[in-house]
Write a structure and sequence with these properties.
eight-stranded antiparallel β-barrel; 5 helices; Serine Threonine Protein Phosphatase 5, Tetratricopeptide repeat; Porin; Immunoglobulin-like; 3 domains
């Protein structure tokens, strides 16, 4: 009997060890996939995967492990880039409370981001933020109101299904809120509901209703608001909520936790057997199934369309065979630039662009009405996210055409066009900003030198040497 009991205990320990290891592997895989989406500027997908990683960590009892600290840190990075400073600081504080020495990867680190992490780390070490501990009580330890600073709340990990949950928080006199509220979102919901907390001195109390605890988890956060309705202190945020695992779901509800909810939008992911899918990014949920996130795929190819205007320095002879004299600056009123390219990495892209200049206003016969060209472009972003400022190099072949006023010409026959090329080479600087989904805004300023060659059998009249510059705005669609 004693030997069989010992064998049973060993089996339980081995099973727990392998389950723990599998849970860690799932969390690490989701974190990796999340940062791949981050590198492709799909921040919504990155946030979904990181919150799924934190759910998996909680279910695997890894919420105090370094792998959870890494997930919270990366969630803070995503929130920071999205402009959610409060959410980023809260996520950084939670990461630092688990691993006080955690650091941002140099590939994503900026001076402002590092400063925010240091500030959050100081708050976490002082007991002011990032506490992932808790229990079913939901309240901070008793405190003298005169010593309370900021908003203090003991984050709750678990709750019983079918019952309301009391939430307590302490708010210091330095906050001066107009109201303090609990924001919660049941499993399957897309929006947060609000419960206003009642005050007794510095202690605020409220309850998440029983109706919220019918699934396997609930997202919530506690926030203090000013008279403009803006949060001035919080434990958690809409972008980085606290997660309550429902340990005993109500009868008729889901009986087991699931990884199929996106904690940010409440949308679902679709399970598929095996490890492959033709419909998007996959993230493993176990040994025999994987999850396919319903959303944008990784962006590998982009299509862009931009339009703007151009000007150039001209010399030589016009297409009407008039010499260019003192006038040297011409214009190409409309320039269209379609482009298709490939993302080599989040920072580097290579594409092929067309340049179609449309000079206008010439009143002499014998000139062309368009200036076609084809360019190979290489773009390099200064930010690891691929957004913001980008530098560009370009080379190709084609014609630049600019309209100029002639010297000493007859009225009504005083405007002609100068053609330049056929070798085109240049550089530029641009800016890109993700708008929504896979759509980005583009702005480019590019310069091109047009070099005349000795053999121009296809060009009539002779092409000149000069340079031009284009300013264009447009949109890019990633696939």
């Amino acid at each position: 009997m004693r030997a069989s009991s010992l064998l049973a205990l060993c089996a339980i320990l081995v099973t727990f060890r392998y389950a723990h290891a599998d849970g860690r592997g799932d969390v690490e895989k989701k974190i990796k996939e999340a940062m791949e989406q981050y590198d492709l500027m799909d921040y919504d997908a990155a946030k979904k995967l990181l919150n799924q990683a934190l759910q998996t960590a909680k279910k695997s009892k890894l919420d105090k492990d370094g792998v959870s600290a890494k997930a919270y840190l990366d969630l803070g990075i995503v929130d920071f880039v999205n402009g959610d400073q409060a959410g980023a600081k809260d996520a950084f504080a939670t990461a630092a409370s688990i691993d006080p020495k955690i650091q941002i990867d140099p590939a994503y680190k900026t001076a402002d981001m590092a400063k925010l992490l240091d500030s959050a780390r100081s708050g976490a070490s002082a007991g002011g933020g990032g506490d992932t501990g808790g229990g079913d009580i939901g309240g901070p330890p008793a405190a003298d109101c005169s010593s309370v600073k900021g908003l203090q709340h003991e984050i709750i990990d678990t709750a019983k299904g079918g019952s309301s949950l009391k939430i307590e928080a302490l708010v210091g006199s330095d906050v001066k809120p107009v109201k303090v509220s609990i924001k919660y979102r049941p499993e399957g919901a897309t929006d947060f509901a609000e419960v206003k907390m009642s005050a007794s001195g510095c202690k605020y109390t409220g309850s998440i209703p029983a109706s919220a605890f019918k699934g396997s988890l609930v997202h919530y956060y506690v926030a203090a608001y000013n008279d403009a309705g803006k949060p001035i202190a919080a434990k958690g945020s809409e972008g980085s909520p606290n997660i309550i695992e429902v340990t005993a779901p109500a009868p008729g509800s889901k009986s087991a936790p699931s990884d199929d909810e996106d904690p940010i939008s409440g949308k679902k992911v679709v399970a598929s057997s095996g490890g492959g899918s033709s419909g998007g990014d996959t993230s493993s949920g176990g040994e025999v199934t994987s999850s396919v996130t319903v959303g944008p795929k990784k962006q590998k190819v982009y299509l862009a369309v931009a339009g703007g205007t151009g000007f150039g320095y001209v010399s030589g002879t016009t297409e009407g065979m008039n010499p260019v004299k003192s006038c040297c600056i011409g214009s190409s009123l409309v320039v269209l630039q379609p482009e298709i390219g490939f993302f080599v990495s989040s920072k580097l892209a290579v594409g092929v662009a067309g340049r179609i200049g449309i000079p206008m206003g010439a009143n002499l016969d014998g000139h062309a009405t368009a200036a076609p060209g084809v360019l190979l472009r290489v773009r390099y972003a200064l930010s690891p996210t691929g957004q913001g400022v980008r530098i560009m190099g370009q080379a190709g072949a084609g014609v630049l055409r600019n309209t100029i006023k002639l010297d000493n010409a007859m009225t009504g026959m005083d405007t002609d066009i100068v053609a330049q090329g056929p070798v085109l080479i240049g550089a530029g600087v641009g800016y890109t900003k993700a708008l929504s989904g896979n759509i980005s805004f583009l702005a480019d300023f590019s310069a091109l030198a047009a070099i005349a060659t000795t053999s121009q059998a296809f060009a009539s009249p002779k092409l000149n040497t000069g340079f031009g510059a284009d300013l264009s705005l447009g949109l890019a669609l990633g696939f």
